[in-house]
């Protein structure tokens, strides 16, 4: 089941992020900043967080929001699936949910940024398998030899 984030979900999200080996501590901290904003300010609309839950256990989540100063561009800030259940289609369901959210909110584009490092091969392939295209690349963005690759999907 995919549902909106609740304040009680916080610790499970912390645990989920800590099990995701690709994320450095600083990345987990940024992810938790967005979680905390969504929990502490439920009226905000910048970070729309939905969790995938099975039998009370959060197995993944996505955070999607409208990009400021645009009239229909959305960012997929985070999409995370517990390593214990990867490969079972949860990421695809979360991505589809994010896309539906964008469509329901009259979005034209959904953008997702990721690293060029080898550790992110599976992430990049995930976007390509789901009909996203590379729309931009900024070399040496995160650090030397770690470029930012921006994937995008356009909705008519």
Describe this structure in words.
The protein has helices at 10-19, 25-40, 90-104, 121-129; strands at residues 2-4, 48-54, 57-66, 73-81, 109-115, 133-143, 146-154. The radius of gyration is 15 Å and the shape is globular. By secondary structure, it is an alpha+beta fold. The protein is 32% helix and 36% strand. It has a single domain (2-154), classed as Aminopeptidase. It is built from 4 helices and 7 strands; from the N terminus they run E-H-H-E-E-E-H-E-H-E-E. A 7-stranded mixed β-sheet has the order 1-2-3-4-5-7-6, sandwiched between helices.
Set down the secondary structure blueprint.
Elements: E1 2-4, H1 10-19, H2 25-40, E2 48-54, E3 57-66, E4 73-81, H3 90-104, E5 109-115, H4 121-129, E6 133-143, E7 146-154
Parallel strand pairs: 4-5
Antiparallel strand pairs: 1-2, 2-3, 3-4, 5-7, 6-7
The CATH superfamily is known as: Gcn5-related N-acetyltransferase (GNAT)
Taken as a percent bin, the fraction of beta residues is: 35-45%
CATH fold category name: Aminopeptidase
The number of domains: 1
Number of helices: 4
Counting DSSP E segments of at least 2 residues, the number of strands comes to: 7
Computed Rg:
15 Å
What CATH architecture label applies?
Answer: 3-Layer(aba) Sandwich
Identify the overall geometry: globular
Structural class: alpha+beta
- Largest β sheet strand count, sense and barrel closure: 7 strands, mixed
Q: Mean pLDDT score, rounded?
A: 96
Can you list the strand order of the major beta sheet?
Answer: 1-2-3-4-5-7-6
Q: What's the level 1 CATH class?
A: Alpha Beta
Gap from first CA to last CA = 27 Å
């Amino acid at each position: 089941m995919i549902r909106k984030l609740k304040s009680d979900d916080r610790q499970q999200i912390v645990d989920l992020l800590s099990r995701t080996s690709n994320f450095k501590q600083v990345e987990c901290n940024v992810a938790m900043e967005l979680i905390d904003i969504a929990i502490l300010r439920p009226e905000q609309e910048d970070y729309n967080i939905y969790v995938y839950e099975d039998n009370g256990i959060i197995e993944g989540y996505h955070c999607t929001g409208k990009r400021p100063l645009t009239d229909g561009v959305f960012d997929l800030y985070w999409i995370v699936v517990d390593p214990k259940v990867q490969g079972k289609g949860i990421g695809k369901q979360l991505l589809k949910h994010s896309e539906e959210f964008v469509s329901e909110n009259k979005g034209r584009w959904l953008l997702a940024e990721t690293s060029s490092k080898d550790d992110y091969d599976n992430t990049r392939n995930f976007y390509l398998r789901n009909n996203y295209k590379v729309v931009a690349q900024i070399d040496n963005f995160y650090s030397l030899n770690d470029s930012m690759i921006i994937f995008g999907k356009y909705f008519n």
